[in-house]
Structure formats: C-alpha cells, structure tokens
User: Fold LytR family transcriptional regulator from Acrocarpospora macrocephala.
Amino acid sequence: MEDSGVHVGGDAYGGVRVTAPRTRRTRTSLRSLMITGTLSGLVLVGSGFAWAIPGYLSAQITSVDAGTAGSSSRSAMNILLVGVDKRDDLTRKEQNQLHLGRQEGQRTDTMMVIHLSEDHRKVTVVSLPRDTWLDIPGKGEHKINSAYQFGGPKLAVQTVQQATGLRINHYIAVNVLGFIDVVEALGGITVCTPVPIDDDKTKLKLAAGTHQLNGVNALHYARTRATGRADLDRIDRQQQVISALLAKAISGDTLTNPAKFGALVNSTLRTLTVDAALSDDFLGLATQLKDVSTDNVSFVTVPLADVNYRTATGESAVLWDKAAARDLFHRINTDQPLIPPVKPSKSPTATPSPTAATIAPNRIAIRVRNGTLITGLGARTKSALLAAGFLVPTVPGDTATRTYKNTIIRYGPARGDSVRTVAAAFPGAELRQVDIDGIEVILGAENHTVRKPVTATPKPTPTAASTPTTKTATQNICK
Assistant:
C-alpha cells in the first residue's frame, strides 16, 4: 500500500480537531458523500454492546418530519439518503483548511436511494446525480439538489418519489459533522484509482493504483471532480469509499473491539438527522439488515441520456434516460435482478470471436489471479489489461493451486455480454459461468497473453431500455 501523504495543516488530521468537545467541534463537509448514514444502518447489527439499550440510539439522533411513508418490519423498504452540505458555522480558516469553498446555507449535492429487499437480504444503493435536471413539485424545473434548499426534507422526498415512482419509507440526512472521525475510527481506508488524480483545489495527488487514506484524504478523494467524467467519476469514488468503510465496519476487527466499535458508532450517530419514525426504531432497521453481506450490497447510478445538457438558463446539467430509469426503478420496486440473468450457452467453454464483443473494455472490471508459478504474471497481466482499456481495481492475487494449464475466465450470469469482450482479450481461454457477480480471470500457463479486443457497435434496439452498470460492495473493495 502507499499513502498519498497529502495533509492539510500541520498534522495527520489536516490541522482540524476531529475529537474536540461538542461545544466547539470542528466540522467537515461531506458535500456529496452520504457514507456515514449508510454505515449507521449497516453496522449497528448483531453486537452485544450498549447500543442495544432501549432509547440509547434515538437519544443520539436528531429527528425531523420528512413526510415519509414509514414501513413495517417485514416488507421491502426505500430510504432516501442525502448529504447536507452545511458550513454556516465553519470559520473562514476551517473552510480554507479543508478547501470547502465560501457558499453559505444548506444544499444536497447528491442523493441516494437505498432499497432493502422484502426478504431483507439484499441492499441496492442508487446514486442520483446532483446535476439531474427535473421537475421539482411546485417549483418548476431545477437541478435535483435544489429541492432540499427550496423545501427541506419534505420537498426532497416528494421530488425523489415523483422522479422514481418509488415510495420513500424513511429519510436519513448526513450533516457536515463526523466524516473524518468515522474514517479515523476505522483506522483509515484503502481505495483504488484506475487513473491518476491531480486536484489543484484540494491539493490531492494520487498516482493510479492502490492507496491507504486517512480521514482528510478520504474526504478529498470522495469530493474531487478532477478526472475525465467529473461528477460521474465522483459518484464511482463515493460508492467505492462506502464499500471500503462498510467492509471495515463489519469486519471482526471492528465488531469485536468495544473501543473501536464505540468510536465508530458515536462518530456515526451524531452526524444524522432522520424521520421521526426511524428515530424511534433505528435499532429495528439495523436488526433488519443483519443478514446482508457485502456480496449482497449493489451500487448503481441512474442511466443517463445526456451528460452535457444545457438548460434554458445556461446551466450545465444531466438528463436521465427515461425508459431505462423507469425500467431500473420498476425492477427495484419489484425486487427483480437489476440485470436479467443470461442463459448459459450450449458450449460454455467456447471462446467468442473478437467481433462478438459489444461492451467496451472501459466499462468492464476484472479481477485477476495467477494460477501459475510464473513470477509477476499477475502484475504484468493487470498492466496489459489497463493498457487495453479494462478496469482492474484490485491487486492481482494467487490461487491456492498454482498448476493451471489453461487460462480460465469465470463470470456471473449477468455478465454474458461483458465476458465476450474479456474472451476476445484472451484468445483460447476457457469460459466458465459460475455463481459470482463479476468477472475473474485465472491465469494459466497457456493463453494468458492479453490482446486488445475489437468491439462492434451493437444493433440498436429502440424499444429496449439500456442496462445500468452495477457493482457489489465486494467488487468495489481493494484486495
């Protein structure tokens, strides 16, 4: 691992007091990062600590009337999670230290809808880009992040319900407190960036690869827009950071350490505002999530039709792909897989021809493992895949058995299209459909040389909605 070494101020916390008394606590901006709210629901489970004492949780959380629908203990649930960027009581020096800008007031830069399936075993997190241009009830067309500014939690909930067709059962807002504390309570996080980051605004400089980040650097990593796709890349980074925090939060090292778990919970709870019903039964929500693993936490961003939309007022915004978005939310609402399962081919070991590939490499993430005794084969293959345009977010590992003769491409039922592109990069490799979510390449002594695949433009299907790209929390975690 390497540390970015980026510090703001004179110490490892960027010169910001992260454990000051509550009467004068230095505050940090989450901007568009709703990480701590997600963690609250996902980590307060199955522990024997004091958090289960009746009334403890509700006493630590601020509640508000958000006009939400409420929920029963055994039904599917939708939670609107927003990050409230409030900096009114930050000093100018504190804003400068954390590169927060000078705007006053409260905004939500990004919203997420968290869907808990009816069997309470799967969680889907849908990112709603902050620049989404849509109709806000009673206010006309604006960016989605204006809803909270216009009408607080109630209007934010109404806007999301109108746009998605989902019934919002609960509301969680993460204020500007505590993100650095949460990361530090977990001992930092590990992230992987497929491209270098050089952000003059936050002074964050990261080479492509894996990095261990402290609280301040994690904040900057999640906020930066200094890469090619700007806010869309930032959403990907936010999802990766949530996954990294979630993995650490539910690890044995955290849950079996009372001091560490206590610091995490306290850091998390004091950042939250929730609807009144959820405040009264926050532990109930946590209990409902007890069967969820990182393999069953999926992230998806609303499909977009135009990422460079120019409004009548000259603002730059994004427009949803209405048909694809409608299909996405219908699947979520009915607990269907986000990507329909692909039927196995009659010849599962056949290698598709390069011309059969229609998914571009830059949309495909691959995990690489070395199944041979060839030193450095995994690292060299990762470099070759990156050069060919693929995403390889994790460090290649080794298989338990190092005697693989042929290279094997393992893929889940939902990756039938993507695997054609991967197969084109490894001519002669064996394809195996297995019960996983992503794509894994086990390198053998033969057919491990990477070739740049040729992708063909698929025939248009005007009546079919485009399929959103999904990742699980496990896929987002650096290995």
